[in-house]
Amino acid sequence: QVSGIKSLYESELADARRVLDETAKERARLQIEIGKLGAELEEFNKSYKKKEADLSVAQGRIKDLEVLFHRSEAELNTVLNEKRSLEAEVADLRAQLAKAEDGHAVAKKQLEKETLMRVDLENRCQSLQEDLDFRKNVFEEEIRETRKRHEHRLIEVDTSRQQEYESKMTQALEDLRNQHDEQVKLYKMELEQTYQAKLENAKLSSDQNDKAAGAAREELKEACMRIETLTYQLSSLQKQASAAEDRVRELEEMMAGEREKFRKMLDAKEKEMTDMRDQMQLQLTEYQELLDVKLALDMEISAYRKLLEGEEERLKLSPSPSSRVTVSRATSSSSSSSTSLIRSSRGKRKRLEAEELSGTSGIGTGSISGSSSSSFQMSQQASATGSISIEEIDLEGKYVQLKNNSEKDQSLGNWRLKRQIGDGEEIAYKFTPKYVLRAGQTVTIWGADAGVSHSPPSVLVWKNQGSWGTGGNIRTYLVNSEGEEVAVRNVTKSMVRENEEEEDEAEFGEDDLFNQQGDPRTTSRGCSVM
Known about the structure:
There is one protein chain. The protein is an alpha+beta fold. The chain folds into two domains: 1-281, no CATH class; 324-517, Immunoglobulin-like (Sandwich), CATH 2.60.40. Helix content is 64%, strand content 15%. Residues 319-374 and 498-530 have low confidence and may be disordered.
C-alpha cells in the first residue's frame, strides 16, 4: 500500500512537473511575443509621429500650393481672356481667308470653264477643218471620177464631137471649180471670223480670271503675313505677360518688406507715444502735488495773517499795510484733454479751499463771495490714412482746407468731401474727374456765400451750397472714388462751468501759479507775502 501511494505520488509529481514545464515554456513564448509586440508598437509610434510630421508639412505645402493655385488661376484667367481675344482675331482672319479661298475657288472654276470652252472651240475648229478637208478630198475625187467618165464618154463619142464636148466639159468644170472655190472661201472666212471672235472672248475671260486669281493670291499672302504678325505679337504679349508676372511678384515681395518695415516703425511710434503718455502722467502727478503744496501754503499764510491782524487789534497797534495780490483771470478754450483735466482739478481744489477756509474756527474773520460762469470748450480730432489730410475747417462754415502731405501729385477725380452736423442731413462736394492736387499744396473749398472768387486749383467755390454749416458736433470726412474714407476731422463743442472766488484780501485764478511763481516744476516750493 505504501509503494502504491509512493508510485501515485511520483506520478502526480511528474504530471505537476510536466505542467510546470509547459507553463514555463508558454510564459517564455508569451514574453517573446510581448517583446515583439512592444517593438512593433514603438515602430508604429515612430511611424505615426513621422506621418504626423509629414502630414503637417503636407498641409503647409497644400496651403502654399492653394495660394499658388489661386494666383495661377488668376493669371490663367487673364491669359485666357487674352487668348479669347486673339482667337477671335484669328477667327476673323480665318473667315477672311475662307472668303478669299471661296473667291479663288470661284475664279478657278470660271477659269476651268473658260479653258474647257476654249478647248471645245479648238476641237470644233479642228473638226470643221477636218470636215472641210474631207469634203475637199471628196469633191476632188468626184471631179476625178467625173473627168474619167467624161474621158470614157469622149472616147466613145464621135471624134467629131469630141472637141465640142471637151470644150463644154472644160467650161463646165471650170465653172464648177470656180463656184466651189468661192463657196469654200466664204465658208472659210466665216469660220475664221467666228473662231477669232470666240478666241478673243476666251482670251478676255482668261485675262479677267488671271487677274482675279492674282488678287486672290495677293489677299492670301497678306492674310498669311497678318497671321504670322499676330502670332509674333501673341508670343511677344506672352513674354510681356510673364515679365509682368515676375514684376508683380517682385513688387509683392517689396510691398511685404515695406509693410513689415512700416509695421515696425508704427510699433516704435506707438511705444514712443506710450512713453510720452507715461511722462505726461508723471508730470501731471508732480503738478498736482505742487498744487496741493501751494494750497496748503496759501491756507497757512491766510491763517497767519488773520492771527497777526487779531493781535494788532488786541494790542491796539497801527495796522500794517495789508498785502493784496490781484491776479488777472483768463478763460480760454482748449482742444487738449489733459488741459481740461488740469482745469477741472483746479476748480475742485479751489472749492475745497473755500470750504476749508469757511469751516476754520477761531482764526479771524473774512468774507468769501463766489460766482459761476460758463464757457464753451472746442475739441478737434483729425486722422488720415493716406497722403491727403483735412488741414483746417472754419467753425463758421465758410471753408474747408485740404493738404497733400506727400511728395507726389494726387488725383482727386470723383472724390467727395462730406460733412454731417449732428444727426442732420449729409452734404457732399464732388471734385471734377480731372482734378489733381499738387505735392505739398493745399486747396480751399469755399461756400457760395463767402464772397470768394473761384480760382482753381488752390481756391474752389461750391456754387450750389451757400455754407458748410455750423453746429455742436461737426464731422467732416474725405471719401475717395471707391467709397473709402481717407481723412476725417471731428469738431465737438461742449459747455464748461467754472467757479470764481474772490477773497477780500486776495484773489486767485487758474493760471496764477504760472503768472506769479512761474512753472511749479522749475521753482522752489515757497510763497512770499507782500
